[in-house]
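2024-03-11 09:14:02 DEBUG pipeline.ingest accepted 1 chain
2024-03-11 09:14:02 DEBUG pipeline.ingest length=272
2024-03-11 09:14:03 DEBUG pipeline.predict start
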Amino acid sequence: MKKKDIFHAPFVEAMKEMTSNMYRLGWDERNGGNISYLLDSEEVAEYLDLSQVKRIIPISFQAPELAGRIFIVTGTGKYFKNVESDPETNLGIIRISADGANAELLWGYRDGGRFTSELPAHLMSHIARLSVDPENRVVMHCHPTNLLAMTYVHSLDTNEFTHTLWQMSTECVVVFPDGVEVLPWMLCGTNEIGEATAEKMKSARSVVWAMHGLYGAGKTPDEAFGLVETVEKAATIYMLTAHLPRVNTITDEQLQVLADAFKVTPKAGILK
C-alpha cells in the first residue's frame, strides 16, 4: 500500500506550528529550545516503512522503558525559524532500540545531523511523566523571556515561586494546579540535569531551569504549549509589577475558591 505524504502528517504539521509560534514569541532564539513528541506507531506506519532504518545514533544513556517507542524530535543546532520551510533537515523521527541505548533514525536529519543534545533530559522526562500520566506525549524546552528574568529577582524556592505565579492571573491555579518545580542553575545537556528534571516531572508538568528556561509537558502539543504560555504570562505580569507597590492581589482564599470551582487540587503546602 502506498504511504501517505510524510510532509502532510499531522505530527509534522504540529511540530512546524509549534516551532514557528515559539520562535515568533521569542521563546527560542537562535538554536535555543527543543521539542520531543511521542507518536503512535500505527499512525507513523501510514507515512513511513518502519523496517527501513536510515542510521543508528547512540544515546548517552539507556532508556529500556521506551524501547520501540517512536518520537519526532527537533535537531541539534537547528533554528526553530527554519523548521516550517525545511522540516526534513531540522526534525527527525526516531525509534528507541530494543536495548534502549540507541535511536533508530526513520526519517529526517537529512544533512547528517542528529537529535537535540537535550534528548536524554527529554526521554527521562517522558519516562517520568508516563509513569504518572500514560497519556503524556509532549515535552518542550524553551527560554521564555520574562520567566527567565524572574529567576534572577525572585526566590527559587518552589513553593514561593509557584505561589507568586498563581497570584499573577486568575487562570494560573486552574491551568497548573500542580505548580512549577524549580531547579538551581545546572550545566545543560548533561544526564545530571536530565535526571534532576525527570525527578521533578513526577510531581509537576513544568520545571523551571533557573537562569536558563522552562521544561513543559502535556498530553498534546496544544496542552504543553498552553501550559508554557500561561506560566510565561504570569511571569510577565510579575516582572511588570514587582517594582511597584501592590494595591490588590488574589488572596489564598480566592485561589482556593477558584480551585474548588474548577475542580482542581492545588499542590499541597502552598496555600495558607
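2024-03-11 09:14:41 DEBUG pipeline.report The first strand starts at residue 34 and ends at 39.
2024-03-11 09:14:41 DEBUG pipeline.predict end
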